[in-house]
């Protein structure tokens, strides 16, 4: 068995002298090293302060004590640029990742460097050695940082669309679609017009609409509408004193909360509208436009 291992190693070493690529489980490597299969990296579970070495790669921190992990000296000749360490904090305390001697720097952001970085409980960090060896500059790069998300927290989904100028095509071109609702500005000029909605599934709809501007009464309006699928509706009002129209020439501002009761969805709509605005005081002119920003909140 020893002879076989040495022979295989000798063949591999010989092949690396004559060929730029090395393949494991593949006869045709197309990169410097190709591994067709899994590979093992050094794994260590720690509960106390640790100095990282060439023997480390993946580290998991457990326990209930604060732990400091110190990176190797990055000022040495041939300072192992490209070495990567992975740290997962499964402890109940923060983990501090420190540069060597507590002074060597870690680049956290493009403009932010620090001699240490805190990894909160439940979080993961990946750090890589860069090409520098001067302690006056960052020697390590924080290349990835992951924070756990509780199961009841979800990413915000939204869509934004801007149409300019306002013309006969605006009702079609301003249409935005998200979830089970579509919205549009139905005006073909910069005069007062309405924001309309269209549901893809029949729903009982409740709307709270706020509008401010000089094109009509401001404040808010509340309304309910039994809305059929694939039919356009303006914001129906039953109570309140805000007019449903919105006037780009007056730069009216409008926003609404829309609830679809059958499909249990909530949307927030913001309308940014303006007519043609002439240049003034060194500020350039602006053509008429409509921007609809719609967020799906549930």
Compact summary:
This protein is mostly beta strands and 298 residues long.
Could you explain the architecture of this structure?
The protein is mainly beta. It folds into 2 domains: 21-146, Sandwich (Jelly Rolls), CATH 2.60.120; 157-296, no CATH class. It is 7% helix and 42% strand. It has 2 helices and 25 strands. The protein has helices spanning 2-18, 170-173, and strands spanning 22-24, 33-35, 43-46, 50-51, 58-61, 67-70, 84-89, 95-98, 106-107, 113-114, 116-119, 124-129, 140-146, 157-163, 176-178, 181-185, 193-199, 203-212, 219-227, 233-234, 239-240, 245-246, 253-260, 265-274, 289-296. It has a 7-stranded mixed sheet with strand order 3-5-7-12-13-9-10, with no helix packed on it. Strands 14-25-24-23-18-19-21 form a 7-stranded antiparallel sheet, with no helix packed on it. Strands 15, 16, 17, 20 and 22 form a 5-stranded antiparallel sheet that branches. A hairpin with a 4-residue loop joins strand 23 and strand 24. The longest helix is centred in the N-terminal third of the chain and has 17 residues, at 2-18. It is elongated, with a radius of gyration of 30 Å.
Tags for this model:
single chain, 298 residues, Jelly Rolls, 2 domains, elongated, disordered N terminus
Q: List the domain count as a whole number.
A: 2
- In helices, the fraction of residues equals under 10%
What would the average pLDDT be, to the nearest integer?
88
Individual helix count: 2
Tell me the overall shape: elongated
Strand order of the largest sheet: 3-5-7-12-13-9-10
- Ranges where pLDDT stays below 50 over 5 or more residues in a row are 1-9, 13-17
Main sheet record: 7 strands, mixed
First-to-last CA distance: 62 Å
């Amino acid at each position: 068995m020893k002879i076989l291992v040495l022979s295989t190693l000798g063949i591999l070493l010989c092949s690396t002298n004559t060929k730029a690529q090395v393949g494991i489980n593949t006869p045709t490597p197309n990169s410097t090293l190709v591994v067709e299969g899994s590979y093992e990296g050094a794994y260590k579970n720690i509960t106390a302060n640790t100095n990282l070495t060439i023997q480390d790669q993946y580290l998991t921190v457990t326990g209930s004590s604060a732990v400091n992990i110190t990176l190797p000296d990055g000022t040495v000749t041939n300072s192992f640029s490209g070495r990567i360490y992975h740290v997962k904090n499964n402890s109940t305390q923060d983990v501090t990742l420190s540069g060597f001697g507590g002074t060597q720097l870690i680049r956290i952001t493009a403009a932010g460097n620090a001699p240490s970085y805190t990894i909160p409980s439940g979080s993961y960090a990946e750090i890589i050695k860069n090409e520098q060896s001067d302690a006056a500059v960052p020697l390590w790069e924080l290349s990835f940082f992951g924070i756990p998300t509780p199961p009841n927290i979800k990413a915000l989904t939204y869509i934004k669309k801007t149409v300019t100028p306002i013309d006969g095509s605006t009702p079609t071109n301003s249409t935005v679609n998200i979830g089970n609702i579509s919205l549009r500005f139905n005006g073909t000029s910069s005069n007062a017009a309405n924001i309309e909605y269209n549901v893809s599934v029949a729903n009982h709809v409740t709307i709270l609409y706020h509008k401010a501007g000089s094109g009509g009464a401001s404040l808010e309006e509340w309304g309910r509408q039994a809305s059929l699928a694939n039919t356009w509706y303006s914001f129906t009002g039953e109570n309140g004193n805000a007019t449903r129209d919105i006037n780009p020439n007056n730069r009216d501002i409008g926003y609404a909360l829309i609830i679809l009761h059958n499909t249990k969805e909530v949307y927030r709509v913001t309308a940014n509208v303006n007519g043609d605005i002439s240049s003034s005081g060194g500020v350039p002119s602006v053509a008429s436009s409509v921007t609809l920003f719609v967020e799906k909140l549930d």
